[in-house]
């Protein structure tokens, strides 16, 4: 249809090629334009189709193409393309229902992606909210508490539109019994307003538990029974019809948002045929709840950790070996869980041999006699020869040997010399024999200690597998490990439970099974609390760790034409950073402008397909939903990987392209920006 409309001499394909060429990478040469024009000599040839093919090969987006047609003033072609891409309007962030305290402000957010020119309109019930035409709706709840108000957002692009989910806002009086006493409306984080209550039911009854919270961003929920997640229970209310004794147990709710997490009180649900009778189990539960302290475990029996440190390495993009998919998801999932357990976490992707060695050296600097637990997780290619395990770096040659890899037993020996209280190795890699390597490495004598735990994703001489779930991939090991990692169990007991779960997976039965090796003599758990000693070495350790987690501060760039550009930053891993640019102010006579990153240091080997994208999703990272919520809208996003490779401070150019009203040509201004050494680059792993 576009070919029919644009294969003419007026507002046709040549004008489209001219406007598209304002972006240098889409500019067609004279030879290419001649090739397009010669298509009219073919029976079914189309110059427009030839041009569109050229633009497609250069990664031109439908959004950019539609913008060019709009600048041409070709309304009919715009309508055709708009109708063809109407399903491109996708709501990425849905508004969430909330319970709020009277007198506070609450924010509802609806963010969508799609063709250019998206507009928003909020409704309360069936009535438009006057002036509510932005992705965020701020509601003043100073009105008296009462029935919940229902809100919905419509997202338009011309005549095409879609609606968000309904969200209801329930306003409660601050003095109501269901509200948390002493709640301050300005308090940061999350606040639970309504706690679940214990209950005693008969078989066949309906179980109904409720947990209500307030927070900004809006809270999300996950219910747990006996400290294990209840599948599909991700709403404020948990309802189970026709209960049986299988539903009895202790229930709690995890309430969380992007920045915070709180837990509800744990309540007991008893289910039986008659009145509940006191039992030993009930008595012990009462003791745990603090009703009786006569047989409580003395506090001194709980091991006290002065610090907990973790190094997580995921290698995916190998130069001479099969590419992997799971490490990015697995490392990120474990990072989030370990941080909940108060671990200091350094997470790195795609390291060469020298970088892996330096990363381990920096990790060892964080360990000393005062550190309770040191945890090393590795996901990537690996092998095992003569009882020694080897981690394969991304630059390993096709016929690699131990000379090209990092030996896990060497790392263990170095950790022992730091006198760490607990040494944990979680190795998510294959353990097949390497036939190219017949050398037995001499790693030195290991000390006789009772504090070592090895969790292998698979058995000796076996492979470890990835589990594909749509666009994401998880390693089999981490798929089950993350279910148990937060459990207050001795680490060996926890890994035993992971092994039992892995054994239930049919597709890997007989092919992959977790292997646990340990000489741990005490009850040591990842959940053991930290008791900082307040000594100099602790301060030095904190400073060393903090170095690898400092992002550049957001800044504003001021250009001569009067345009102001915001430069912002977000982190995916300790060595991967997102940079976004946003035009925040422009003179009225400038009709279009955008700020792009150029001249990024060559040693970072940045993929141009991952720079200056109009939406976070175009960066191709499966972790976009994690960091993109904190970024403003209408930005250009760039993903900068391999920060450990920086030889000098990170400097790049911000190129501003803008056009004045009534002019066809774009004007360009440039500013050089230096953001120092961000994240892991501060540690000079090179």
TrEMBL record:
Q: Name one Pfam family in it.
A: Ig_3
Q: Which residues form the Ig-like domain?
A: 89-164, 185-270
GO process annotations (BP): proteolysis
Can you give the residue ranges of the Caspase family p20 domain?
Answer: 306-434
UniProt cross-references to CDD domains, sorted A to Z: Death_MALT1, Ig
**InterPro entries in the record:** Caspase-like_dom_sf, Caspase-related_regulators, DEATH-like_dom_sf, Ig-like_dom, Ig-like_dom_sf, Ig-like_fold, Ig_sub, Ig_sub2
Gene Ontology molecular function terms on file: cysteine-type endopeptidase activity
Sorted alphabetically, which SMART domains does this protein's record hold? IG, IGc2
Full protein name: MALT1 protein
Query: What is the scientific name of the source organism?
Result: Sylvietta virens (Green crombec)
